[in-house]
Amino acid sequence: MNLAAKMQLSLMLLPFLTMAQTYELKPLVTDAKTSMRGLSVVNKEVIWVSGSKGYVGKSVNGGKTWEWIQPKGFETLDFRDIHAFDAKKAIIVNAGSPAYILSTVDGGKTWRENYKNTDSAIFLDGMDFWDKENGMIFGDPIHQKMQLLKTDDGGLTWQNITDNLTKELKVGEAGFAASGTTIKTSSNGKVWIATGGSVSNIYFSPNYGKTWKIYPCPIVQGESSTGVFSLDFYDANNGIVVGGNYLKDKDNGNNVLYTKNGGKSWRKAEKPVFGYRSGVTYVTNDICVATGTSGTDV
Questions:
Q1: How far is 131 from 42, CA to CA, in rounded Å?
Q2: I need a surface site. Which of 66, 96, 116, 198 has the fewest CB within 10 A?
Q3: Hey, what domains does the chain have and what are their CATH numbers?
Q4: Could you say which residues form the signal peptide (predicted)?
C-alpha cells in the first residue's frame, strides 16, 4: 500500500478532528500486496478499496480487519477506481487497455463483466454515481474526444455518450486516474470532470451528461505530468481542485484552487498545500483534506 493511500484512508475514515484541532494519522493497512488507488467509503463500518494486481479490499468493521479479493481472470489489472453501494454491491474499473467494468452483488465472491473495450487507446480515468442507478465514467480522449460512459441500471450496462461532448480536447489534454477522483457527481444531474496535461479544464454538465460547458482551470499545467489530479464539490457552488506535477511531488506552486461559482472561475488558496496532491475531499464546508505522495494537508 503506497503512502498516499495510507494517508487517504487514515484521514478519510477515522474521527481525527477534535475540538483542539489536532490530527492523528493511523495506518489501517500495512501488509497489503497491492498499490491502492480506489477508495469508496459507504459508512463508518463498510469500506472498499481497489488497486494493482487485480486486488479489491473490503472491511465491514471500520478498517479493523480486511478481506482481500482478486476477481478470477482479472488478476493482472490495475483497478484505479471503485464505487460501493453497501457491503454486497460494488463496481470496479481498471486503467489501460483492454478496459473492463466489473460488478459484484455478493460481497466480492463473484464478479460480472459489464463492459469491455479492446481499443488500444482506451484508458478509463474515473467513475462516480448520482444514486444507486445512475452513474458516469470518463476516459482519456480517442481522436481528441473524451470518452464518456453512462449507466441508468446500477452499472449492469453502459451507454457510450461521448458524442454529447462536442468540443474536442486539446492535443496533450487528458484526465488522470491517480485516485479516480477527477470526476464528481452532485444532485439533479450535475457532474464535473477535470483534465490536465497540455491544458487544464473543468467540464461541467447540469443534466446527466446531455450537454456540457467548459471552464478553464488555472492550475499548474503545460506538461504531461501536470494538471488537476483530484476535485471535490461541497455543493453546487463550492468546490476545490488539487494536483501539481507528479514528477516533482514536493513542488507546491499553484496546485490548489477553489471556486465559489460552480467551477466557472477559480482562485488560489491563501495557504498552499505542501506538494503534489492526488486526492482531496471535503470534511465540512470549511475543512478539506488533501493527500499525495509527499504528504497530507488539512
A1: 13
A2: 116
A3: 1-122 (2.120.10.30), 133-298 (no CATH)
A4: 1-20
